[in-house]
Specification:
The protein is of the alpha/beta class. The chain folds into two domains: about 100 residues, ornithine cyclodeaminase, domain 1 (2-Layer Sandwich); about 70 residues, Rossmann fold (3-Layer(aba) Sandwich). It contains six helices and ten strands. The strands form two sheets. Strands 1, 2, 3, 4, 5, 6 and 7 form a seven-stranded mixed β-sheet that branches. Strands 8-9-10 form a three-stranded parallel β-sheet. The longest helix has 20 residues. It is globular and about 50 Å long.
C-alpha cells in the first residue's frame, strides 16, 4: 500500500491535471452514498468532536476503486496547536478490496475542493476573467488561488478575511507569482472591480 502525506499529495496533484480529472470523473457513473455523520463525545468539558465517513466507488462492475474518506473535526484543536480537521482517504482495489493507498485527507480535500471550484468557473465565468476575489484566509485560500490561476488568465487576486493580518499572510505566499495578490479590506470595492 502506498502512503501519500500532505507533501506527496501536493506534489502529485497538479491543478490543471486535477481539474481535467474531475471533469472526467463528474461525467462518469459513480456511486456516492450519503456520508455518515457521528457526534463523538469527548467528555472533557469541551465541544463534541465529529466523525464523517464518506464512501464512493466507480459505477463499473466490479468497481475499479473504492474510496473512503474519514475525517474528524475537533473544534478545540487550534488551542492545542493542531488543525480542527484531521483525516485520511483510503483507496481500495474495487475487485479485491485490497488497500492500494492511504492519502492525507486535509491535503487531498483542499486540492480537490479548489480544483472543483476552478472547474465550476470554467462553466460559469468568462474565459478572459483576469481578476479573482478569495473570501477567507484558511487552508483553502492558497489552493483556490493556485487552481484558478492555473486555468484562467488571472492577473490580480484580492484576498479578504476577517483578520487583515491573515489576508496579508496569504498574499505574501504568492510574492513570486506571475500575478498580483493583495490583501483587501473593502470587499464591496474589490467585488465591484472589472473582471478583466
Amino acid at each position: 500500500m502506498r502512503i501519500y502525506d500532505a507533501d506527496a499529495v501536493e506534489a502529485a496533484l497538479d491543478p490543471v491535471r486535477l481539474v481535467t480529472a474531475l471533469r472526467d470523473a463528474f461525467r462518469t457513473d459513480m456511486s456516492v452514498p450519503l456520508r455518515h455523520h457521528h457526534s463523538i463525545p469527548l467528555g472533557d468539558g469541551t465541544s463534541d468532536a465529529t466523525l464523517l465517513l464518506m464512501p464512493a466507488w466507480s459505477g463499473t462492475t466490479p468497481p475499479r476503486h473504492i474510496g473512503i474518506k474519514a475525517v474528524t473535526v475537533h473544534p478545540d484543536n487550534p488551542a492545542r496547536g493542531l488543525p480542527s480537521v484531521q483525516g485520511a482517504y483510503l483507496l481500495l482495489d474495487g475487485e479485491t478490496g485490497t488497500p492500494a493507498a492511504m492519502i492525507d485527507g486535509p491535503a487531498l480535500t483542499a486540492r480537490r475542493t479548489a480544483a472543483a471550484s476552478a472547474l465550476a468557473a470554467h462553466y460559469l465565468a468568462r474565459e478572459d476573467t483576469a481578476r479573482l476575489v478569495v473570501i477567507g484566509t484558511g487552508r483553502l485560500a492558497p489552493e483556490l488561488i493556485a487552481a484558478h490561476a492555473a486555468v484562467r488568465p488571472i492577473t490580480h487576486v484580492g484576498v479578504f478575511g476577517r483578520d487583515p493580518a491573515k489576508a496579508e499572510a496569504v498574499a505574501r505566499t504568492f510574492a513570486d507569482a506571475p500575478f498580483a495578490v493583495e490583501a483587501v479590506t473593502d470587499l464591496d470595492r474589490v467585488i465591484a472591480a472589472p473582471t478583466s
